[in-house]
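Q: Could you fold this chain for me?
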Amino acid sequence: MIIMKKRKFEQSDFWKQINESQLSFNKIDNIDDFKSSDINYKIALFNPKTNGIRYLKTLIFNIASGLNKNEWTLLQNIAKRNFGKPITITYNNQQICLDYVQAIFELTFLLKNLQLGDASILEIGAGYDRTCHAIISNCDIKSYYIIDLANCLQLSRRYLKKVLPEKDYGKISFIRESNLSELGGIRFDLCINIDSFDEMNHDVVEVYLSFINQRCNFFYVKNPVGKYFDKSLDDHSQGNQVVELALSQGVLKDVIDIHNNVEVEKQAEKFLKAYSPGKGWQCLSNSWAKPWSYYWQAIYEKKGDQ
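A: Sure. Below is the predicted structure, expressed as structure tokens.
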């Protein structure tokens, strides 16, 4: 018979501190909402309010684990993508950031539907333009035109100059949003808008859609399907005025539960109608645009001049 010596079980100093703070008896008297409180943030879930970087890196890690061989190839073709000190994780000895993972998803969607060799591309609202960087690094395009506000154009000029070889940088033209006349009579094989129509005045979006209708053969769009008013997501940290401005922009202003897939998919029907450049256009393909729950993507082809 095995006789166990009497042991003295004592809580560690670490857990003593926890039990006196997050799990004190007075805090666990009422457990109606404990799963979104300090109680659960200590025993099961990292507090999202103070662990944003942890959750972002976890998101990137999980996405990277699901990339296929073709997506890895596209990503590895993009040199200097870590310029600017992005938040990254390391997977398969590659540094990965969320921006360029999204660029790869977008490019993969495009290449399933189009051949971009020798294409003339127009992008409206490019930010610092990871999209241009990803496309030029993977496709032998003819030209790339960027239309944006002056501040963003300055950022994209400086960024793309840093990350692209001189020959590729020479394919890019930068156009102020108020100077569409500089485009002359150029026709474009493809127009791209990613996450910016939703932030423009409705009438400005309509002007751009009319321009696309007249001057482009294909149109790729990726934007939110609607608005949200969930203060728990960001505590409206930029103030009520910014929230009100955000809700007033774009062509899709319905406030929805952006983390309800049924609502998102229903709203996507309005998305497809809202972003069709005209009656002569056909949607070739559309889908949820991961990883954000409420983004959708579609590619349209001009079939006639109706």
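A (continued): Residues 98-113 form the longest helix (16 residues).
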